[in-house]
Amino acid sequence: MAARILHRLRHALAGEGGREEPAGGGGGEAEDCPESSELEDDTEGLSTRLSGTLSFTSHEDEEGEEEGDGASEELEEPPQAPGAAAGTEDGEWVSTAERPGGSLLTRQLQELWRRSRGSLAPQRLLFEVTSASVVSERSSKYVLYTIYLIRSGQFDKAPATIARRYSDFEQLNRRLRCRFSCDMASVAFPRKRLRRNFTAETIAKRSRAFEQFLSHLHSIDEIRRSPEFLEFFFLPDLQAAQRLTCTGMYREALATWANAYRLQDRLGVCSSGRFLLTLAGLAVCHQELDQLSEAHGCCEQALQLLEAQGSHPLLGPFLQAHVHLAWKVGKDKRRSEARLQDLREAGLPLQQQPSLKECLIKEPLE
Questions:
Q1: What DSSP letter does each residue of 51-74 carry, written as one string?
Q2: Max Cα-Cα span within the chain
Q3: What angle do CA 275, 177, 124 make, to 5 degrees?
Q4: 263: which residues sit within 8 A by CB, 6+ positions away?
Q5: Integer Cα distance of 106 and 76 in angstroms
Q6: Which of 82, 104, 108 is nearest to 28 (CA)?
Q7: Using one digit for the tens of pLDDT, what is the confidence trace for 27-57?
Q8: Is the pLDDT of residue 10 over 70?
Q9: 70-87 pLDDT, tens per residue?
């Protein structure tokens, strides 16, 4: 799409700038080649980077989105200002201010870039199977699929990941079909095979099918917000992190709590009770590992989420932990102390309130 826009711009400029150019007539060709080839190369690179990612769209929509992504990535780079260096056909570099029509093209590109920033497509969540490994246990053998949750148009230094086997996907499919029979009627799911389950061809086909399956589910509003769909992603991590915290394996637990945090963030459920429990787990593990500033930050984030709630089982424990950590790291604790005083005056027995760690141990995660 961006290449076609530039093609039309160059044709529009041919009538204006062509008569002003020197008799050699090489200026127009020098303008065309670098601009066009740069866009085409960038689009090919984008397609290569996203070749393993599937989203549930029609073929026509898919082509349009790929063109739009390539154009937006190109336009995100600030265009060259008038007078900046630009390439010529024979490899020499000259100022655009010295070339007829160069500044006009730059101004038009700048205006196009400014307009496009307000009309870029919203971010989508992509599901990409990055690896699949055959796991052999005493009485069973299965394939474990590792899946990244990726926001389109972004690079995650620490991506949110899950590892699931075919039976996990099958259970999710069965639960959703029981509750959303109409919406699930058009959702395809890879059928079970009796033989050749561990061949490279079968694993590759299932990997692509699971990407499409999750993308299709995420595109349906009711399913995307359902507990069945959401807990498929982060409930196993919460359960594993809780077990590790209870047994004192805080470093391993911290990594698992952090992945559960990223999963809930990608799925857009950062105001739920599960997310508050995740912040509690992070705060406890950071504190046990003597990472007090990080623990204090987790408590602050939780208290911001609890700002509008007059009562919550975790409000008292978070306030008490925040006051203690603020004193340790030298931060202001007066607001939390005032909120604790309000709770005392409201009749809440703060002395009998459990600590954050006790809340984690007692919280049933099923």
A1: TT-B-S--HHHHHHHHHHHHHHHH
A2: 91
A3: 50
A4: 149, 160, 162, 233, 234, 237
A5: 15
A6: 104
A7: 443 333 333 322 233 333 333 333 343 333 3
A8: no
A9: 333 333 333 333 333 344
